[in-house]
Amino acid sequence: MNTPVPDYLADLLRNCKAAHGGELADYIPELASADPTKLAVALTTLDGVIYSAGDDEHEFSIQSISKAFTYAYVIEELGLQRVMRKVGVEPSGEAFNEISLDKTDEQQIKPKNPMINSGAITVHSLIPKAEKSCRAETVRLFFSKLAGRELAFDQEIFHSEKETAFRNLSIGYSLRNFNILESDPVEIVESYVKQCAINVTVKDLVNMMSVLVNDGILPRTGERILSHKTVRQVLTVMTTCGMYNAAGDWLANVGIPAKSGVSGGIIGVLPGQVGLAVFSPKLDRYGNSVRGIDIMQQMSRDMGLHLLEGVPSSRVIINDHDVKQIKPEVIVYKLQGVLQFTEAERLLRKLQDEKQCNHTIVFDLSHISLVNDVGRRMLLDGIDRLRADGHDVALIDPEHIIPDAKTDRDFEPKIYEDLEQIPD
Ligand code: GLU
């Protein structure tokens, strides 16, 4: 049997090829000569398996997609607090290259977020600078590590943008004027432009993203690259600010933390599930790839990826008919689905009906698919409360879904493999 995913991706591209519209970016002269027919899509699973279709070997400059990864790098190097002092996290609702600075409560001026150019240039300036090497080189090495291959600068794109980077230079000077940049703005802007000129394919992008999907651990090597906190921060700003001034539309229609770039790439990350990348060079008026948006929308719909779709929580974690008195003194609660706050609260509410006596209450967890930390703590707390009412408590937990089952009062419930093991 073959997995249907590659066929699905190929079908997506086939069905989308008809969608035209949009224009090639021309404010970087070299981008105007891109081949508008190129179309590619790639997907990474949580465990780092890559699927792709279309022009998946075609290289293009990463442009603004780089902003998300450089932000992650800098937070990891300096700590979130130091980065937050320089760049905020408020959506700007303006074009990406707006000279936009925000006055915070403390009357401190700083770029609104790291996904617009003023924020991204500031973030770039925070990269610790190795002697005799530009910051862009540090970024290139970091991106290469994530991609699992040596990435290169596109010199033509770099020079083409550098020679016309008047707007980014004026942003740089303005940032320097407010002391947000602490050294030569020309050098920083040039190095930032070079960061944007790193060449990638859609496969590189999903490889890079796998670290965000997998909570900071690169699945290919098992190495932790980013902390949980960094990943959460990056995904947060991608959600609110990743799609330029179309972020609201994107969140409503696609609902995946994302970042796009003016060369025509878009990445989308659903933590714990998938990473997606698309490429098609023609852009809409906000600077987002027209066919890229179309494909992302389709994938979000087909795969049920919208962030606010909610975890398919088993609302029926506990049905009345799943509470059974299997022996005179033994009551079994058969739980199913996921055990998070909502379900644990329901369970504990139901347990309020248990009279004070010396029954044994058994929680059968063999049909639970996931327990998060809150669910675990609430279950263990419930066990202490049941014991305070005189009950004994045991678990059926063949998969050890509750590791280290020990309550705050140091009680360790007996754990059985199945119902048969429960003594009279
Ligand atoms: N290098 C481009 C710039 O800074 C990137 C813009 C983008 O992809 O949004 O103007």
From TrEMBL:
Matches recorded under InterPro entries: Beta-lactam/transpept-like, Glutaminase, STAS_dom, STAS_dom_sf
Binding positions (substrate): S64, N117, E161, N168, Y192, Y244, V262
Domain STAS, residue spans: 328-396
Superkingdom: Bacteria
Catalytic activity: L-glutamine + H2O = L-glutamate + NH4(+)
Gene3D superfamilies in the record: DD-peptidase/beta-lactamase superfamily (3.40.710.10), STAS domain (3.30.750.24)
UniProt EC number: 3.5.1.2
Xref: PANTHER family: GLUTAMINASE
Similarity annotation: Belongs to the glutaminase family.
Subunit structure: Homotetramer.
Protein name: Glutaminase
Source species of the chain: Sphingobacterium populi
Gene: glsA
